[in-house]
# Entry
Amino acid sequence: MNDTKTMSPLVNLQGVRKSFGEHHVLKGIDLQVHAGQVLGLLGKNGAGKSTLINIMCGMIAADAGRVLIGGRNPARQSVGKIIGCAPQDIGLYPDLSVRQNLTSYGTIEGLSLREAHTRALEVMELLGLKAQADQGARSLSGGQRRRLHAGMAIMHRPKIIFMDEPTVGADVEARSKLLKAVRTLADEGAAVIYTSHYLTEFEELNADIAILDGGHIVASGTLDEIIREHARASVVVRFRGQTPAVSGWQATERGLEPVNEVIDPGHAIAALLAHPAVHGLTVDDIRIEKADLQSAYLSIIENKENHHAA
# Structure
């Protein structure tokens, strides 16, 4: 993880709980995020990610636990000057241009008009919106609106940035520019909390990971740690006709798969094809999927569900 973790975290949560009536959404969340860190917050729909972000932004109060954002309790002290938040729902001034949206929001956040104009140019450059500077927000594409929405959240150079599924509905270009911007913001010293259902985005960001399930953080660590501990490579070999019985392999609806974890997929496949049981059979398909965040995430969630069912 980031070397700045020797310093005090900008986001520090301890034992955070939140319920809505009888529905216990958060059941004791411990979480720390440091300057220069991108934290990918993963979880199924309804896992409590947005609730947790709302608590950190001071929009709702936790029922119990400690919440410190830049050293402040957002339920009691204003954190607006040190945080930037781009929620899922896009909020723009449709009749203003890109430049006007950014400068207006900058002045709302305390920048002078001169500072807001200068910062707007920086943000448009960062997000690839310079060509649309004088274009009305109403006429922007969906991806451009997403980028402008994110840009407004960072106009005042916040120390802590929350991006809640910022690429939903964005095109490939918009997604790429947003991810590069997020990485740049972290490299410049911001702490970024980022949610998305596109798991490859966390790999592109080289984000640290925290997985929220059942009201708890069930796994956390660097991307490499999560993949190394929880993911496994997938190998599937499909034969034409009947699937052969081979020791160490199991027949599934996808084909023949190894019973145990495969360290070297190429060696495993070569050994399988040399086995007497497959002589004379025709291979229809060989599929190798490397260990990645998606397989790690599914493994963690599946193990958690099996634990509850047991």
Observations:
- The mean pLDDT is 91.
